[in-house]
Each structure stands twice: as C-alpha cells, then as structure tokens.
Amino acid sequence: MDTGVDQSQDLIEDALHALDLDWGAAAAIVITHRHDDHAGGLVRVANLAPAASMYAGADDIPAINTPQDRDLLAVGTGDLVVGMEIVSTPGHTPGHISVFEPTRGILVAGDALTGNPGGVISGSNASFTDDMDAAVASVATLATLRPDVILFGHGEPVTTGAAAALADLADS
C-alpha cells in the first residue's frame, strides 16, 4: 500500500523482514492518493522493488512523483490488484482509491476515512479534502462493503464492529 513520506523505505523494509520477506516479494505498490504523506516515498520504494507494478487512481497520477523509467497504472472500481478489489473513493483527492480484501474483509481506506480513539470512525478530514460532497458519497460506497477490519491512513485500525461503525457514519 502507500509508501508514506520520503525516507520511509527503512520502515517498510523492517515490516517486510518481520514477515520473512524482502523487496523481491513486492508484486505491487498501491498508492491511495497523491498527498506526500502517502506517496512521498514512492520513488525510493519503487527503486528497491523494481519488479513491483505501481498503481493509483487516474486523477491523482499526474501529481505523483515516480521513477523516470516507470509508470503508474491507473486503477478504479472493479479493478483487481493481487487479488484485492480497488474502490474509487474520490473526495479527499479526485483520484483517491481504497482497497478491499474480500476474503478477510479488510478495507484499506487511505484518507477516505479517519480512525479515532475508541473505534470511532469519521470521514475524510475536511481541512485536507478537495470535495467534501464526493467524500461523503465515498463513505456510503465503502459502507456497502461491510468490512470486518478497517485500516486508515491516519488513526488506529478498527478490528471489531467495523461494518456497523461504518454504516452508522454513512447514515449520519
């Protein structure tokens, strides 16, 4: 998923090693959106994982720095990347995407959602959101997935009651 800010490659490498993996195991790099705290490390990570294909939402691709010899592939709702479903979730940015792993019910929401203490979920942070109406519509889209677990770009994961909490947010 996201590569974080520039210089995040060591943290990503530590996570790979914790799983007894190395950069060669990276088949795909998925960027949820163009903001530097999510895509800023892409050039360094891509150079360390040269066999990995790189993906992002079409409307954000022009604003994401990539290695000169590599292209980001545009993905959106209905596309599959290494068995995970891509869901277009515009609003935070025009090309924002989320990723859903249906077998385990894991949703990687990027910044379409925010995790708050106590398992409370809120929508995209208005201070950093391009189109709040689209962001609210994206919450409703994500609620239809009924995830068991939600991982956020910012905030602690929700591992219990995720579908209900997301449905409540979508209904509010």
Task: Summarize the structure in words.
- This protein is of the alpha/beta class.
- It has helices spanning 9-18, 36-39, 42-48, 132-143, 162-171; strands spanning 28-30, 53-57, 72-75, 80-81, 84-88, 97-101, 106-108, 113-116, 120-123, 149-151.
- A five-stranded mixed beta sheet has the order 4-5-6-7-10.
- The longest helix has 12 residues, at 132-143.
- It is globular.
- The two termini are 29 Å apart.
- The mean pLDDT is 96.
Overall spatial form: globular
Structural class: alpha/beta
Beta-strand fraction estimate: 15-25%
The major pleated sheet works out as: 5 strands, mixed
Strand element count: 10
Task: Please report the distance between the alpha carbons of the first and last residues.
Answer: 29 Å
Rg from Cα:
15 Å
Order of strands, widest sheet: 4-5-6-7-10
Instruction: Give me the strand/helix succession.
Output: HEHHEEEEEEEEHEH
Mean pLDDT: 96
Report helical residue fraction. 25-40%
